[in-house]
Design goal:
The protein is of the alpha+beta class. It folds into four domains: 90 residues, conserved putative lor/sdh protein from methanococcus maripaludis s2 fold; 87 residues, Elongation Factor Tu (Ef-tu), domain 3; 61 residues, RNA polymerase II/Efflux pump adaptor protein, barrel-sandwich hybrid domain (OB fold (Dihydrolipoamide Acetyltransferase, E2P)), CATH 2.40.50.100; 74 residues, Orthogonal Bundle (Helix Hairpins). It is 30% helix and 35% strand. Strands 3-12-15-14-13-16 form a six-stranded antiparallel barrel. The N terminus is likely disordered.
């Protein structure tokens, strides 16, 4: 009887189990569906970029030639022709302007005539000297007469020498009537016109040499040391993606009284034809021994008694807690010396509430 009663109770409990088990299974499915449909946690991330610890400083400058010469005629005269214009590139020996040669030719002819006369005078004096020496040897001439003849011959030789030099000088003056370029360069200014009378040495054509170019900038007095010891490079406004190495060549000994800046000239040994004179350029100065660090907000740093770490987010939203090396702390930022790769994305807010096992959704990206 007892066994039968127990079996009867089991039979009565079957309907109850039939109701409870489906309910439990349904609850588990609802829980699994809820877990799958749970939204990903949104996070704000920053892209890691390593830069010199000391920020770069940039200055606006102008491309100028290292050597710019005001060329002029070496003799006075009237300008006959001007053969070049501003902006024209000239080669060595190319004529730039010419003078009227009439007066110079007359001077050359006069010098040649004086040379002919001096040559005849010397021949006559030399013959007289020879005769006087013969007469003196026979006793028919005195010493005074011989001395007089010798003096006349010496004077004739001196006049011949002077006439020869005069011919050379007038020949040079005639060649100076053509103003020629002494090097390859570009004409930056012209101050003469045909018909103008110019003096010897008066500026006529300004020629900028193409050999070496430089960037001229104004440096504040607080950055003079960095300009002398740092690494400089130049980029053009017309082509910002191209940079050229620069080296400080000259710095003004005193500051400009109005701007209190020092004029500095940086040579560009690698400049090509794309670096044209007068272009606007940006000169950037970087400290030579400055360590490269990544600047991130303090809120991105995670530390719970262990080494400082950062939460790195990949493209799939997976988190990785990565230890890093801290260079220094600031009031708002932290400088990272290593441990995280260039271009990595790290969480910047709410890192204390994150779990490395969960996935996140990037809602914004910042660059520091």
């Amino acid at each position: 009887m007892l066994a039968f009663a127990g079996f009867s109770r089991q039979i009565k409990a079957l309907p109850i189990l039939g109701v409870i088990l489906p309910a439990l299974a349904l609850g588990g499915c609802e829980q699994s569906t809820a877990e799958k449909s749970a939204p990903l946690r949104p996070v704000l991330v920053a892209t890691v970029q390593y830069q010199p610890e000391t920020p770069e400083r940039s200055f606006v400058g102008t491309i100028r030639p290292r050597i710019e010469t005001d060329m002029g005629f070496r003799v006075a005269g009237k300008v006959e022709k001007r053969l070049v214009e501003v902006g024209q590139v000239v080669e060595p020996g190319q004529p730039l302007a010419t003078l009227d040669r009439i007066d110079l030719k007359l001077q050359a002819e006069q010098a040649q005539a004086e040379l002919s006369a001096a040559t005849g005078t010397l021949a006559q004096a030399a013959a007289a000297q020879t005769r006087a020496q013969e007469l003196k040897a026979k006793g028919w001439a005195t010493d005074a007469q011989l001395d007089q003849v010798n003096a006349a011959a010496a004077e004739a030789r001196a006049r011949l020498n002077r006439a020869q030099r005069s011919v050379e000088l007038t020949g040079n003056s005639l060649s100076y009537a053509t103003l020629a370029a002494d090097t390859r360069g570009v004409v930056t200014a012209t101050t003469i016109n045909p018909g103008q009378v110019v003096a010897a040495g008066q500026p006529a054509i300004r020629l900028a040499r193409m050999g070496e170019k430089e960037a001229v900038v104004a440096i504040p007095e607080t950055l003079i040391g960095r300009a002398k010891d740092g690494v400089a490079r130049v980029s053009l406004w017309s082509e910002p993606g191209k940079t050229y190495a620069a080296k400080l060549r000259e710095i003004a000994p005193q500051a400009d009284p109005a701007t209190r800046t020092y004029l500095a000239k940086f040579s560009l040994p690698d400049a090509d034809d794309r670096v044209a004179l007068g272009m606007t350029a940006t000169l950037t100065i970087t400290d030579r021994d400055s360590e490269r660090v990544a600047r991130l907000p303090l809120s991105a740093l995670f530390s719970q008694g262990t080494s400082p770490s950062l939460y790195v987010v990949d493209d799939a939203g997976k988190l990785t807690l990565t230890p890093v090396t801290v260079k220094s702390y600031g009031s708002e930022n932290v400088l990272i010396a290593g441990g995280v790769a260039e271009g990595a994305k790290v969480v910047t807010l709410g890192v204390q509430k994150l779990d490395p096992a969960e996935k996140v959704r990037v809602v914004s990206s910042l660059t520091f």
